[in-house]
Amino acid sequence: MGPRGGISRCPCGRKLLTVCLSRSIQAAGSQLGQSKDYALPNASWSQDMLDLYNRFLDMTKDGLWKRIPSYNNILDHIPESMKLTYEKRKDTRLFLRSIDAEGAGFEYVMFLNTSEKRVVCLFQPGSYLEGHPGFAHGGSIATIIDSTIGSCAISVAGKVMTANLSIDYVNPVPLGSVVLVDSKADKVEGRKVFLSCKMQSVDGNTLHAEATALFIQLDATKAQKQQASCQ
Amino acid sequence: QVRRGVQGLFRTLQCVKRSGGLLTVCLSRSIQAAGSQLGQSKDYALPNASWSQDMLDLYNRFLDMTKDGLWKRIPSYNNILDHIPGKLTYEKRKDTRLFLRSIDAEGAGFEYVMFLNTSEKRVVCLFQPGSYLEGHPGFAHGGSIATIIDSTIGSCAISVAGKVMTANLSIDYVNPVPLGSVVLVDSKADKVEGRKVFLSCKMQSVDGNTLHAEATGKDVLRVVGGCWALGWELLGRCQNFPISGA
């Protein structure tokens, strides 16, 4: 990667100019596609996954739905203005993008509908997410649910953190199958955001899991987040 | 590698098995058992270079407690089938990996080891989240916390009730867990009602000063196929496993 986006100093002590340069180079780098967007079809996606993806992609045409890009480091999801707060550790990876082998981990893409306060995630669990033989681990289900609900909470309330997550596991998810994770924000009470979520099979016949969650808003920069975090 | 050699032999026997019968199946199982004793599958629940001093100290403290037999260290492999006796029930997919052992780079994923106390119906997990588990910058992802809690509670449920499946998991996130820190996940079975097993769990910092998360879980016992009691076998495996330092 290019120069760090942190505070750097010239031997003479000046720092302001270097910071601006770093930020420009990083921004330019992002536009040059420096960080790979994983929320796009690849060879491991099944036909079900592709069909579902195209269906939602069609729905983005009138602007009601937006595809949310996904990178393998959390800092790539945070708008430039916020990045300086964090020291970028090159060796960290966003948990859902931690498995390198294509198709082996979490294959997913999220779509956001701001007016409905809804985030839908298309999810295809890979062979490295195994729990019971042939099925996705309960923790991997919890992870994709936490992330989907979390994205919904962020779109509604800005910077948030999970306070409670409660999941009912109804039917195990076979590895390689495709599920739809549909989350929405039910209500906002002060700094509390209450959300719910359902995970269903592509044909809608099987309910795999249901969840409710409570997220707490950390600060009030909601407008900035909403604009910057999705294209 | 010994493993590949044994696997090759096993594959040959599989071919013979299709035309053969009982004798060939028994041979396969003997070779598999022999292979396990030859260390065919690596046990990851042992110290490695990525473990911090806190993790090592905690591990040694629990290892001491295994000496009088009340506590047992639970071995951990990177494929679920290595944890299950009577593997032939399942078609072994070589390309699958147990989720908590899916990240190859040492120290980058879930570094953990579990200890079981049967009489207290308790499983304790020592957990050091690596840099590939990131959620909020510098902290472990809520999903990774849910994963280690589900696994710890699940191991406890298995030891109490045999083959189980998670029915409900409810987690209160109290304080975020910094990447690279060490936490203790303490789970116990609270009660068993028919096929339902109710458990609870706390995740605390090593010094006990910070409560990171609390959880309740309900596992439902389901009997599938040949009704083999996974729980008892797991205990058997712990007893046979050499209890010594790394």
Automatic annotation (TrEMBL), chain A:
Family statement drawn from the similarity comment of this UniProt entry: Belongs to the THEM4/THEM5 thioesterase family.
* Molecular function in Gene Ontology: hydrolase activity
Quote the cellular component terms of the Gene Ontology held in the record: mitochondrial inner membrane; mitochondrial intermembrane space; ruffle membrane
List its EC numbers.
Answer: 3.1.2.2
- What are its GO biological-process terms? apoptotic process; fatty acid metabolic process
Q: Which UniProt keywords apply?
A: Apoptosis, Cell membrane, Cell projection, Cytoplasm, Fatty acid metabolism, Hydrolase, Lipid metabolism, Membrane, Mitochondrion, Mitochondrion inner membrane, Transit peptide
Task: Give me the reactions it catalyses.
Answer: (5Z,8Z,11Z,14Z)-eicosatetraenoyl-CoA + H2O = (5Z,8Z,11Z,14Z)-eicosatetraenoate + CoA + H(+); (9Z)-octadecenoyl-CoA + H2O = (9Z)-octadecenoate + CoA + H(+); hexadecanoyl-CoA + H2O = hexadecanoate + CoA + H(+); tetradecanoyl-CoA + H2O = tetradecanoate + CoA + H(+)
Enumerate the subcellular locations listed in this protein's record, separating them with semicolons. Cell projection, Ruffle membrane; Cytoplasm; Mitochondrion inner membrane; Mitochondrion intermembrane space
This protein's membrane topology, according to the annotation, is: Peripheral membrane protein
User: Can you say what this protein is called?
Assistant: Acyl-coenzyme A thioesterase THEM4
Task: Indicate the segments forming the Thioesterase domain, all copies.
Answer: 134-206
The record's annotation in InterPro entries points to: HotDog_dom_sf, THEM4/THEM5_acyl-CoA_thioest, Thioestr_dom
TrEMBL record, chain B:
Q: Name one GO biological process term.
A: fatty acid metabolic process
Per the record, membrane topology reads: Peripheral membrane protein
Give the EC number(s) listed in the UniProt record.
3.1.2.2
Q: Which GO terms describe its cellular component?
A: mitochondrial inner membrane; mitochondrial intermembrane space; ruffle membrane
Reply yes or no: does the keyword Oxidoreductase apply.
no
Lineage top rank: taxon: Eukaryota
Which UniProt keywords are given for this protein, alphabetically ordered? Answer: Apoptosis, Cell membrane, Cell projection, Cytoplasm, Fatty acid metabolism, Hydrolase, Lipid metabolism, Membrane, Mitochondrion, Mitochondrion inner membrane, Transit peptide
Q: Name one GO molecular function term.
A: hydrolase activity
**Xref: CDD domains:** PaaI_thioesterase
Substrates-to-products reaction catalysed? (9Z)-octadecenoyl-CoA + H2O = (9Z)-octadecenoate + CoA + H(+); (5Z,8Z,11Z,14Z)-eicosatetraenoyl-CoA + H2O = (5Z,8Z,11Z,14Z)-eicosatetraenoate + CoA + H(+); tetradecanoyl-CoA + H2O = tetradecanoate + CoA + H(+); hexadecanoyl-CoA + H2O = hexadecanoate + CoA + H(+)
Leader sequence range is none
What Gene3D superfamilies is this protein classified in? Hotdog Thioesterase
Q: Name one Pfam family in it.
A: 4HBT
Which top-level enzyme class is recorded in the Swiss-Prot or TrEMBL entry? Answer: hydrolase
Per the database record, which ranges form the Thioesterase domain? 138-210
Subcellular localization, per the record?
A: Cell projection, Ruffle membrane; Cytoplasm; Mitochondrion inner membrane; Mitochondrion intermembrane space
Q: Would the keyword Hydrolase turn up in this protein's UniProt record?
A: yes
Q: Which family is it part of?
A: Belongs to the THEM4/THEM5 thioesterase family.
UniProt name for this protein: Acyl-coenzyme A thioesterase THEM4
- From which organism does this entry originate? Apteryx owenii
